[in-house]
Amino acid sequence: MAESTVQQSRSRDLDKLLLKPGNLVAPTFEPGVQLRDDLQEYARILVIGAGGLGCELLKDLALSGFKNLEVIDMDRIEVTNLNRQFLFRLEDVGKPKAEVAAKRVMERVSGVNIVPHFCRIEDKEIDFYKDFIIIVLGLDSIEARSYINAVACGFLEYDSDDNPIEETVKPMVDGGTEGFKGHARVIIPGSTPCFECTIWLFPPQVKFPLCTLAETPRTAAHCIEYAHLIKWDEVHSGKTFDPDDPEHMKWVYTEAVKRAELFGIQGVTYSLTQGVVKNIIPAIASTNAIISAACTLETLKLASGCSKTLSNYLTYNGVEGLHIKVTEFVKDKDCLVCGPGVLLELDTSVTLQKVIFYFSWLLFLLVC
């Protein structure tokens, strides 16, 4: 098939959304070829995470007309990734996920440019994130979500009436999967709940009593957590355990195997060790595809205004049949991350001691 024919085929369905008016469009929506061309030329989208969900997001965004993409991921490809992270091959094991994922999508979708960043999200300057119109999250970490949420909300400014200033709003689309379950949500700082507003949605992590780990382990997970939480500190006093360091993980695995053999426990594997230490729930490829499709559609709607966006939290459950539900959560008006806060105007000559005093007095008034 000729390249021009392929391009026409790819843009056919997209044109139905961007070239025609509709009843559900945003007030700013102006259909036409110019809108489609502007999205392709000027819209810069950042994808955070190049794992199971991140691979799907990069592919879907590229096929949805976005040509300027960037992706951040700090991990390297492992053999256990290959069953669900479809952009990777056996020969890619050991290579940075972001770099390989970007290369593979560009090989398959002509005209798209994806810039990979093999680093931690904290390694980037804050202003780096300001250059993107939308940030799409394909993460498996609560801590990473909180960090990006704080960065995006940090750009937000309010006017004198506590209304968000539009040009300072940095929208985010957050996706997550756990086995046969997943979610997609739209976060518009200042308008919808941010991540911290609904942090209670995430269940607490499973913790094992230390006495069980030390005295009466009964499962493979107990042996792994013993090596991780107790044995590591005994042997490496003062050295912080890094779950992303392969050598550290191998050490925990080896010690867990020894512990399991001592108590006659079966089932300790390197993959399980990673899952227990990092609190990883096995991913399902079909779930990643469904959640990625929802996130990509919301990204397109945010960027173009071709339809109303999700309001504002979609949950998917494929454990028994298929169940999809949308819930509209309400923004916490007192949220310390995305709220307008309290304006304090101080003279530049005020000392630090007085600033602390003012804050202490303000806190007292708020509590009382």
Neighbour order of strands in the largest sheet: 3-2-1-4-5-6-7-8
Please provide the count of β strands: 8
Give the overall average pLDDT: 87
Helix proportion: 40-55%
Euclidean distance between termini CA atoms: 72 Å
Order of helices and strands: HHEHEHEHEHEEHHHHHEEH
- CATH T-level topology of the largest domain: Rossmann fold
The DSSP helix count reads 12
CATH architecture of the largest domain: 3-Layer(aba) Sandwich
- How many domains, as an integer? 2
- Anisotropy-based shape: globular
InterPro entries: ThiF/MoeB/HesA, ThiF_NAD_FAD-bd, Ub_act_enz_dom_a_sf, Uba3_N, Ubiquitin-activating_enz, UBQ-activ_enz_E1_Cys_AS
Protein name: NEDD8-activating enzyme E1 catalytic subunit
Enzyme class: ligase
Pfam families: ThiF
